[in-house]
């Protein structure tokens, strides 16, 4: 399982941030040719075959990747730091969404809001448990509540990624609810 996890992390870096690191390109929608990805990974000593790639995509707990209908192309579902058009449709979110982060970021978030930083979108979760898991990666966790109902009323757009992550451009501080 360790090998699959490491390969999954590597694929995530390639498909979301650095396709050039193994000499591949993504199309404008973030898709990579599966055969090209496999060949390039093997050339970079990240040994994988189609069966292993299929297993990684199917079993990834965060559902980070998708194949096209023919399984000829693959892409990350969200989290890109490179410009891609994921062809997301606007959706109306639940009235409250959650953002997990580290307590050390709280002061800046209270001043500036939740910013997308190096990514294309701010990532929000539908429940506190998921947000807490996300925040744990960054240190002592705090889960912030976002008044998405008010944001929608004020004209902000939301998108739902294929793997269930809510996305928006920014969350200004006035939409953060007091704990």
Label this structure with key terms:
179 residues, alpha+beta, elongated
Task: Please work out how many helical segments DSSP would assign.
Answer: 6
Overall morphology: elongated
Helix content: 25-40%
Query: What portion of the residues fall into strands of 2 or more residues?
Result: 15-25%
Strand arrangement, largest sheet? 1-3-2
Name the helix and strand elements from N-terminus to C-terminus, one letter apiece: HEHHEEEHEHEHEEE
Gap between N and C termini: 39 Å
Rg is 17 Å
The chain-level mean pLDDT equals: 94
- Main β-sheet, in a few words? 3 strands, antiparallel
Specify the structural class.
alpha+beta
Spans with pLDDT under 50 lasting ≥5 residues? none
Record field, number of beta strands = 9
Architecture overview:
Strand 2 and strand 3 (73-76) form a beta hairpin. The chain is 32% helix and 18% strand. A 3-stranded antiparallel sheet has the order 1-3-2. The chain has a 3-stranded antiparallel sheet with strand order 4-6-9. It has a 3-stranded antiparallel sheet with strand order 5-8-7, with no helix packed on it. It has helices spanning 2-16, 34-43, 50-59, 106-112, 128-136, 148-153; strands at 32-33, 65-67, 73-76, 96-102, 122-124, 141-147, 159-160, 166-168, 176-177. The chain is built from 6 helices and 9 strands.
